[in-house]
Amino acid sequence: MKSNKVRVLFLCSQNSARSQMAEAFLRLYGGDDFEAHSAGLEPAPIHPYTLQVMAEVGIDLIAAGQRPKSLIEEYFEKQVHLGYLITVCSNAEAKCPIYPWGGAREYWGFEDPAAFTGTLEAQLAKFREVRDLIAARVKAFIEQEGATHLR
Between vectors from CA 137 to CA 91 and to CA 17, what angle results, nearest 5°? Predict the structure, then answer.
């Protein structure tokens, strides 16, 4: 049985913060219309502050089964077909190989909260800021994609 879901892959350098947040928000807000994924060029463990700020909005990434994934090993080598490949950081946008099984490609540039330095509270504030920007962008994407399907 063929799925009518739009498969979306969010790509970042490490798949430890921004792309994980985007995947979680698309799962939450996209319902049965989307299949959300995320990956990194050089995967690293999910950042503890990512886990914390997502838990603050009721999303447990670990319980949801999210984990760092490699673009090459889990998507490219398996020739996974996508409706969208969305890069969420400038590094991934610049270094991402051509993805022949991708549909539309978009770039959503978000600041890397893990690169921010300062007090613990300042760092968490940056993670929250980026989280909220990603949530808003995912909601706008869903509305845009829904409007596209209605035409």
Answer: 45
CB-CB contact of 44 with 15 (8 Å): yes
Contact 68, 43 (CB under 8 A): yes
Least confident range from 2-6, 19-23, 110-114: namely 2-6
Q: Give the Cβ contact number of residue 86 at 10 Å.
A: 25
Q: Which of 9, 12, 22, 71 is catalytic?
A: 12
Asked if 110 is an active-site residue, the reply is: no
Does the active-site annotation cover 96? yes
DSSP class per residue in 77-114: TTT---SEEEE-SHHHHHHPPP-TT--EEEE-----GG
pLDDT digits (tens, 9 = 90+) for 6-63: 999 999 999 999 999 999 999 999 988 999 999 999 999 999 999 999 999 999 999 9
Residues in the chain, how many? 151
Q: Is 89 a catalytic residue?
A: yes
Of 17, 71, 82, 96, which one is the catalytic site residue? Answer: 96
Q: Which of 142, 146, 141, 135 is nearest to 24 (CA)?
A: 135
Measured CA distances, 107 to 1, 63, 113, 115 (Å): 31, 28, 17, 19
